[in-house]
Design brief:
Largest sheet: 5 strands, antiparallel
CATH architecture of the largest domain: 2-Layer Sandwich
Number of strands: 15
CATH topology of the largest domain: TATA-Binding Protein
CATH class of the largest domain: Alpha Beta
């Protein structure tokens, strides 16, 4: 036992009121539901299996009670009992020596274990039902008032996580609309469906969070402690999903909540894939170590790299692949050089770094190579983006390279005028 508190709170109670029977001309007592400001008693405890939790008892009929516990604390206690090393995250786990066992522990938190926790502490704590009442059949039965089900994805590079989450917010502002939210919860939404369906972005300081509402259920997504992406579904009314409030319905509610978390992440896969693409782009543009071998960068704007990618695309449909000489011949033509200027040693260096970056692979038992699917997609996209977007685009917006008017050039000119005007006004104000 850690702390005992007492507070007055407004809650639902049952009162008796006097009513009159006109036929018999008599009065009788009638029980009605009402509200009252009554004393609540809080017991904050630490359990050897569940960690910190609290029990709250109402001192007025029907003596409602509330049990509040945290599944993450249960998981931490079990890890400590089994002597499995872990690093804690506020209301979560950042890392664990045995993640498979951690998942098994989380899955093992059952309705029976929660009920056993309550019975254990009811035997120890003073509460409204003494022994004679319990013998007469008066006892507490657990129902689910609120349940939170979370998915925490710990990031090895938190900066990328912040970029990801900002993209998530920007790309999913309409995800709370009825057509989208019904896909997340796998429930049909019609004009008669109660509740508000909306997406909210709430900022606490500089940390934004994404909120999605479905009836009385909410999904919250945020960047937790700058280290993890937390997606959590809070079910405030189990009947939103046509499920009773009894504790025995815990498995069904867990399935609904975890599936909602997964479906939300699936709808955000396009944004998530862009972060993976950012990582791939940086790996190509920076030197790296592959199987203990250092490989130089394939810099996007390097003329030699652009020429190599264009040359590789010529060999994509060759069934027997290409050789060192084939690549040298085409590369020399693209670079405006003679084959003699591109020695065999230089071509071997280029083939090595293409292979280590995963763009090409050697055909077994030969000295020939073929373009990988990854290499084809990278070469095709990078060459087209460079030749069709970057070079002509810069030529259109820069005054020194083109004097021809165009919509893109006019837009940049207007932007420059607005910025200059704003700076001039700021100088006058100061």
């Amino acid at each position: 036992m850690v702390f005992i508190g007492k507070a007055q709170e407004k809650c639902a109670v049952y009162r008796t009121e006097k009513r009159h029977n006109p036929k018999k001309n008599t009065s009788y007592a009638w029980i009605v539901k009402s509200t009252a400001l009554v004393n609540q008693y809080y017991f904050y405890c630490v359990d050897e299996n569940f960690g910190p939790f609290f029990l709250k008892f109402c001192s007025y009929f029907p003596y409602n009670a509330k049990l509040c516990l945290n599944g993450h604390e249960y998981a931490k206690r079990q890890l400590e009992r089994e002597k499995i090393a872990y690093q804690a995250l506020d209301n979560g786990i950042q890392s664990c020596a045995n993640p498979n066992r951690l998942q098994a522990i989380c899955d093992s938190l059952s309705a029976d274990k929660i009920d056993a926790l309550l019975r254990k502490w009811l035997r120890r704590l003073p509460h409204p039902f003494p022994a004679r009442d319990r013998q007469a059949g008066y006892r507490y039965q657990i129902s689910i008032l609120q349940i939170e089900l979370s998915l925490t994805q710990v990031l090895d590079r938190p900066v990328s996580g912040r970029i990801f989450f900002e993209d998530v917010i920007r790309e999913n502002l309409d995800i709370g609309r009825p057509k989208q939210v019904q896909l997340i919860f796998d429930r049909g939404v019609t004009k008669t469906t109660p509740g508000s369906f909306r997406t909210r972005v709430i900022t606490d300081g500089v940390i934004p969070s994404l909120h999605i509402d479905y009836k009385g259920t909410r999904i919250k997504q945020y960047h937790k402690e700058g280290q993890a992406l937390r997606t959590e579904t809070t079910i405030n009314n189990t009947r939103d999903f046509y499920i009773g409030k009894s504790l025995r319905n815990l498995p069904a509610l867990r399935q609904i909540g975890f599936q909602a978390n997964r479906r939300l992440l699936q709808t955000q896969r396009i944004t998530h894939d862009s972060i993976l693409a950012e990582e791939t782009f940086q790996q190509l543009n920076r030197p790296r170590m592959v199987d203990g071998q250092r490989v130089s960068a394939l810099r996007f704007a390097d003329p030699m790299v652009q020429a190599i990618w264009n040359a590789l695309l010529l060999f994509d449909l060759l069934p027997t692949g290409f050789s060192n000489r084939n690549l040298r011949t085409n590369l020399a033509a693209l670079r405006g050089q003679s084959e003699g200027q591109l020695t065999q040693g230089r071509m071997t260096y280029q083939l090595r770094r293409l292979r280590l970056h995963g763009l090409i692979e050697r055909i077994p038992k030969t000295h020939r190579y073929r373009l990988t699917d990854f290499g084809f997609r990278v070469a095709l996209f990078c060459t087209r983006a460079y030749s069709r977007i970057l070079r002509p685009g810069l030529g259109l917006v820069l005054p020194a390279t083109s004097s021809l008017p165009c919509p893109l050039r006019r837009s940049f000119d207007r932007l420059e005028q607005e910025v200059n005007s704003w700076v001039d006004q700021a100088k006058l104000a100061s």
